[in-house]
Every structure is written in structure tokens, then in C-alpha cells.
Request: fold
Amino acid sequence: MTAVLEPATRTPAPAHRRRGRAGHRSDQLFLLPAVLFVAVTVVYPLVYSVLQAFQDVGLREVIRGGAEWVGVANFADQFGRPEFWQALWLSLVYTVGTVALSYAGGLALALLFVHRFAGRNVMRALLMLAWILPTVVGANVWRWLLDGSYGLLNAVLRGIGLIDGDVFWLGQPGPALASVIVATAWSFAPFAMILLVAALQGVPATLYEAARIDGATAWQQFRHVTLPGLRPVSITVMLLIFIFAFKTFDTIYLMTRGGPGGATLTLPLYAFQEAFEFRRYDTAAVATTVMLIVPLVLSVFYFRSLREEEAA
Amino acid sequence: MTRERVRLVVAVAVTAIYLVPVYWMLNTSFKEQAEVFARPPALVPVPPTIAAYRTAVFGDPDIARGLLNTFVIATGTTILTLVVAVPAAYALARLRIRWVTPALLLFLAVQMIPAVNLALPMFVLFGRVGLVNTYAGLIVANCSLSIPLAITIMRPYFLSVPGEVLEAARVDGCTTFGAFVRVALPVSIPGVITMAVVSFLGAWGEFVFGLALATGDELQPISVVIAKLTNAFGTRWNELMAVSAVVAVPVIVLFVLLQRYIVAGLTDGATKG
Reply:
């Protein structure tokens, strides 16, 4: 079993070590550490957490162990709470809003940056900064931009006469939710742009020529050539951003802590709060278990779209 | 004006507006405390001062320790990720082994899992084995995200190594490991760089694991330290922006140096199986 770890020798490999159809068994050792690592640090905690949802787990049980099985009592408890449904609803609004804004922004950027002009690559790279910047940085900068009294946004809005006095964007439920969506989409849109630029370059130029010959306007070309041509990549982009957004914790936590009054308390923040503030590890596990279902369903779609892309 | 000119002008304007948040961070970080509260705010810090950097970044032991912790965690994560993910990616790309498809699906699927879903049970399980509030625990937690991503980034690079080259190495007497180290790895260095940088940057900005697993002050990464100090910094925006800028700088430097690799890596990891 350790043969694979021996330093390479210049002697010819004996015939029995040459790979057959199945390959040498010790080759499996290349993959084994990664599989074991993921099994222990991802799969096991996930299973453990799902099991916790069916137990009575408070701080005492976490420290001493010995949690009792309670069946579906935790689920019944959570499903009877308006706060839980509120968190799930907010998660969906936040996620769908982020997907829509990121995709629209990314597509607009892609339509501009697919063309050739001086400095295009440099500017594309600069835009990617928004995506690559740590969320902790982006979230704090957005909080500062949106500050009611001294923030840049209000200064600009006051300057052009749109508002009068201070608007506390993060202090009111609706605007706070819109703000975290904008801040998230700001960082996701350049990611969408990069994938969509590549896809735009793949739309055959002959299709546009044909459309022009048929007298199609720019809008008709966009509607009937560009968008259908982008479809597979668009689906991938939207699915990926949906998954990214649905699991977002840091941006929201750093900008609003889930507030004001729970107006941005999406499911990940709700679960975190249940566990680390209220020490209700069991109901937190219910929330995270529900959170697993969405990416699970979506990943099925994602794999299917990947397969279609490969087949195409 | 030609069409190209118009596009150039629009693109410059769009890029400039898009990067206003980044500019505003730098602008504020070079302002005096009093200047931060000017209405309307000054678009350029006059005169620019590094006072905020001096007090917040170099004068505050919590911040300095947070930066050091983040560096240790990100470096450890990168090394462990390289050691575990590179051979796995090679095996999935070029070795005839069992379970290739299930393993690929596993590594792709776990990337969809929210970090919160892992942080909560990890807090309990790591507590049992003494990993809460240790560098090792934070590194392992970060690797649970970075290793699957690194494998998906790395695999296409190994796939592009021609099988005949590896076969030739084998005929010349290389073991599987020899062919991997001497033939496949050297031509896949861009992939290794990409995944190392992506792993490092991921851990550098990581927040959820730090918040859940670094319960004491001593080992908290900078992301958590900033979040904790946010209230204390409530009115000291210039200092908060200075710290944010310092956190952003390594990211920007790595990005500028390795832009080609990173963009390719991020998009590859996202689209290719």
C-alpha cells in the first residue's frame, strides 16, 4: 500500500504493476485523504446536525452530552413560529432579489465589456475587485456609504435635491433589506459578467448578420439572438448566484446584524442566533436542516444543466 | 466620435462609478476624524493623513493580533489544501481509479453547503476534541470549504496534461507518484498557483468559522475583530476604513500580480465539473 509513496526509481516497472483497466489499487491513495477529510469535516458534521434537530440539545447537552431524542418536536416548534417563516421568507426575498440584480447588472456589464476598446481588459479586471474583495471589507464600506448622517449616498442625494435631511437606510426594514441586496449584488455582478462575456463571445456572429439582413432592430437582435444564445450560461450563472446568496451570512450580519427588528434576519442568521445567542442548538439544527434542502434541490438542477452543456 | 470611442467613454464612467466604494474606503481612511463628519464630505482628503492607520492598525494590539491570526489561518489553510487537494485532483483527472464520479459529485455538492450549516455542528464536535479556539480547528474548518473548491479548480489543469506524456513516463520506469511529481505537476504549476491563491484569499476573508469557532479574543481572525469593533468604531469611520484597507491590500496585490490565474480559477471552478 505504501508503494505509491516511494520515490521514483529509474528501473522499469514490473509487468504486474503496469496499469490494467482498473489501474493500480494504490492509486486510490491519491484520492483517499481528500475523501476522508471531507467525510470527517463536512459529511459527519452535517449528519450530526440533522440528528440534533431530532434531539433536545441545549448548552448542558452540548457540554455534557446525553441529549434525548424528541422526535419531530423541534420541527413542530419551529414550524409553529412566525419568526421561522419570516426568516425563510426573507431568505427567499433576499436571494431572488440578489440573483435578479446581479444577473441584470452582470449582463449589462458583459454587453459593454464584450466589445474591443482600449483598456478593456484592465477595466474588466478592476471590476473584478468588487468580487474578490473580502466581504468583511465590502460590507463595512457599504455600511459607511449608507450612513444616514455622513454617508456618501445621502450627500449625493441631498446635493441633487432628491432627499432633504438624513435617511437611515439600514435603520428601516424595507430599505435595510434593499441595501443588503444591493451590497451583495455589487460583488456578485462582476462574477456574472465574466461568465457572460465568455458566453457572448460564443454566440456565432453569423446569427447577428442573418438577423441584420432580415432587418432586425438592435432590441430584436438582443431579444432573439443574444438571450437565447446565452441561455445555458445564464441558467448556470443564476443557479450559482442563487446558491451563493442563499447561504450568505457575513454581508448581512456585518451590515445589519439581521436588524432592524429582524427585517434582514435571513435563515442563516436566524440559525446562528438560535445557536449562539439563545443556546437552542436543536432548533438551530432545524433551521440549518431546512437550509440544506434548497441547495440540495438546486444542485440537482445544476448538475443537470452541466450535463446538458457538456452534451451540447 | 466612433463607436469604439463611445464605448470607451461609457466603460470608463461605468468602471469609475462601480469602484466608488473602494475609492471611498481609501479616501476616508486618509482623513482626520473631524473631516469624516464634514457635510458635504470632501471628495479628496486634504491634506491626506495616515493618522487613522497609525492609531487603528499599528496602535491597536487587537487589530495587529487579528491580522496575524488571519495570516496564520490563511497560510495553514493554503498548505493543507495543497497537500490534500492536488493529489486528489490528479487522481480524479488522470488515474484509473474507482469512485471517480461519486467523488466528483461529492466535492461539487459540498460547495453548495452554507458555512453556517458546518459552523454550528463543528462548534459542538470541535468542543469535544479540544479544537474550539485553536489554530488547528480554524484551519481544518477553512479547509472543509477550500479543499473541495481547490479540487474542482485543479482538475481541469491535470486533464489538459496529455495522457501519452504520462504513459511515456511510466514506460520509462516512473512510478505513478513519480509521473505525478516529475511530469504532471511541473506543467500544471499555473493551476497550483490558482488554487493556492483562491484558498488563501478564501481563508483571508473568512468570517463565519472565525465567529463561531474562535470563542476567545486571542485567536480571532481580523474579520471577526473588525465586526466586534464595529460598534466601538461606530463614529470613527476613518479608522474602520483604514483597517478595512489593510485587510484589502494583500487581496488587491495578489489579484494584480496573478489576475490572469485568479479570474480563470474562479470561473473554472464555477463552471467546469
